[in-house]
User: What shape does this take?
Amino acid sequence: MITKEYLGASSIAGPLMVVEGVEGIGYEELVEIKSKDRFTLGKVLEVSGDKAVVQLFESPQGLDPQSLRIHFTGKSLRLGVSLEMLGRVLDGLGRPRDGGAPPLAEEFIDINGRPINPFSRDYPNEFIETGISSIDGLNVLVRGQKLPVFSGSGMPHMRIAAQIVRQAKVLKSGESFAVIFAGMGITFEEANFLIKDFEASGAMERTTVFLNLANEPVIERIAIPRVALTLAEYLAFTHDYHVLVILADMTNYCEALREVSAARKEIPGRRGYPGYMYTDLSTIYERAGRIHGKTGSITQIPILTMPEDDRTHPIPDLTGYITEGQIFLSRALHRKGIYPPMDVLPSLSRLMTKGIGPGKTREDHSDLSNQLFSAYARGREARELAIILGEGALLDVDKKFLRFADVFENRFLRQGEYESRSVIETLEKGWQILSLLPVEELKRVRKEFITKYLDKYFSQAGDVQEDSIL
Amino acid sequence: MIKGKIAKVSGPLVIANNMSGVQMFEIVRVGEKELFGEVIETKGDLASIQVYEETEGLKVGEEVISTGNSLSVELGPGIMGGIYDGIQRPLKALRDLQGDFISRGISVSALDTNKKWLFQAIAKQGDQLTSGDFLGFVQETHLVKHYIMIPPGLSGKILEIKEGEFTINENVATLKDSEGVEHHICMMQKYPVRIGRPFVDKLQPNEPLITGQRVFDAMFPIFKGGTACIPGPFGSGKTVMQHQLARWSDADIIIYVGCGERGNEMTEVLIDFPELKDPRSGRPLMERTVLIANTSNMPVAARETSVFTGIAIAEYFRDMGYNVAMMADSTSRWAEAMREVSGRLEEMPGEEGYPAYLGSRIASFYERAGKVKTVGNPGRTATLSVIGAVSPPGGDLSDPVVQATLREVRVFWGLDARLAFARHFPSINWLISYSLYSHEFEKYFEKGELKGFNNLRKWALKVLEEESELQEIVRLVGMDALSPNDRLTLEVARSIREDFLQQNSYHEIDTYTSLSKQFLMLKVISTFEETARMAVQKEVEIESILELPLKESISRMKEVKETDLQKLEILTVNVKEMIAGLIGGRA
Assistant: This one.
């Protein structure tokens, strides 16, 4: 195939470059741009007559439009993938940034991927034990799920991500497990913390890090999630790995998307984000999953910081409509010093019912978590009333729910950063705390479970009872 | 045939020149890969085309060829139990051809053209038939008798009709029209998706669509042939409700359109439905279901078409005389697809960037629902009910898609994130939801076994309304300030909410409740209120009523099996006697 090279662009504005007088250029084609001392990449965003609009993947700084040699490659952006990439720190286009040699590619794959045929999907239903009660007990993560963490600036989402990587037990014997971390616009300290933590726990050798730091060009962030997921697909569906992909911070990705859209003078949607942001995000998130007849899986934990903690902001909003649930972090709990500060009421795991129950966790898991949720909700309601009217104005039963909420936060949610609880321990804790409530209020649990579990744990619940007196 | 050339490519939109003569909404094949596209605007010799597949790699100058057809669905035996993408390509066949990931430029027949079906004739040689008349039928699945009808626009005398095993493309009959032209009729017919199928007359819906979901059937019922929408923020349970409706509603045929939603959700339907049994016939639910799955990461233009593909199939089964229910999840994604294409066309935007024709498009979709007298003989009435989920940003009901939908639909089921957080499911907010079929509901339950259902419904809604007023007061002055009567109202309202409205979709018994059970459950709670109110008037302490061992039996009503409904009748008597005992005790 003949590829074409042109001399000089007619304009560069922000992340966009316009090349005129071109012929036979394909939409989304990869473009190589050579200047005197640099070599950068871009892709075709629009072709119209003899004009091509090219989006640069790297900063245009120092590029002189007239003297550029622009090479249209006739193919889309591909990532050279290989098992060698595990244990490495790479940049947004897969080039080493850890000082090592470039990994040798075994295969070149289009980074845009292709949608998984819904008919080929296998339903995610294998429980992942993260060792964190608020996840394992109430918002279960399963293999092949995409479960984002909705956080805010200043909250410990990175520490939670590191804890999940440390503790997640998805290993049956003989299964391979890999972590891919895509850092978009995160600070050096955050990136360093994670990499150090991966190294300390020994996870680094099965981890690939793709990194674009906060001070690096914004537009490099656009390719990162797709590059990371391309490697994930290769590991999962060619080499049978169970891959956990952590994308942080999706807010920075969306801002890069907005920048490109604004440079193209597109009609903006809400808050200036492009109208196609839902579709664009879905082509990232929907790459999680399992496929019939393949062993591997891709589980995604995208992390995003909600601007002003506003959950109706377009980024968390559109994300929540695509992902299978969400984990909210609460600033109020964080201020109370509770780690992990999981805001369990708005959090949700849509795939939970398929991942729990007899044979997976335990028969009472579903009823118990429903009961904990509704009791905690009622306790919080009582707390609000108590703030206005004073605790004395509450009915006796509401006082009990109020106690329950306090103990629940202190004993169930609160957990050490290096404390890993098995799911059975988590369920036990749940029953112990439920024993603070009158039995007839436990409407969400089947009778047989109350007789089987509540009484059993009630005798062990002495310290919880004490707690509630305080 | 018109041949043009690509002049511009931008996302799913391609502009081609040299296209004069092409019709609006004509299907064209774009580029060397012959991608499917549809003409959505013509100007001079330029045509704007929305392409149903990824446009990556398309080049200026590649050929665009018109086909002379508009976007159509293939209708015939073999469609039941199918799973299709937005332009009715069978996903199973695509997987067999291309593997686990969807790639481009493949055209596959929507229906299996090799399979032979046993055709049984209804019409006879010499019969004078018009469009819509039954020629014969195929027993497609245990649940669905697939009638072969004379396609729209044809009429004449049957020259020949066969019986036996045929593929869908083989002739089963020959028809001679009034001008003497002979038409060969096979079991498959094509019909354009954007045009509604003709009918004789539209009628007023007068039969409830029973869903087995208490908050719908007893509080905000939808009628067969009606329209409903479920708007709500993410995580409030839209999709679970749509799945429940698809599972349990007493329609004959279910068309489920997953429009721009999650891939795993479609997989869930695909895995669950063949296993779930229809409560009436005991057969797998998949035998009466057609799925259209255009997930969020599949091409955006095909998402726009998917709801029309769905409703065109739904109307075809309606014309056979069936009660069809269609679920579209979610119409917001459909509207966003319109917005994206409109933006690329550089049209002047309306509210929130949506095109100004958003309202009329939504209307033209929902108006295809209804109870109708169909064309053809034997005369039949049939219904098409449409239930659309809407996903407004941040759950904000002032969103243009919600507002345009509310102008069209007769039933509004408003989801509430706060209820979902407290795991009150289905999280339908009873204060904002409504059904405009309440009059029909009253008429329907005027007589028969469930006489009085309408009074119970009105009573329950009234108690809930009173509760919301009382709660304002409680928030200001506390529970102690309430009179015993008001405290009783709060207790009863809590019972209606927790013991009746809350329903666990994942509980084997609670997931479906028959109308008789719903009636009895409400009866128990209303009996409790009635007798307790009497007791309070006789100055029985409210605490002593609440301490009676009734609360638990009432909260366990949900777990009573459909075959043990007499237990609920016994409970009603118990409630009466125990509270009466308190009054007696004082006297």
Q: What stands out?
A: The two ends of chain B are 95 Å apart (CA to CA). The mean pLDDT of chain B is 91. The first helix of chain B runs from residue 91 to 98.
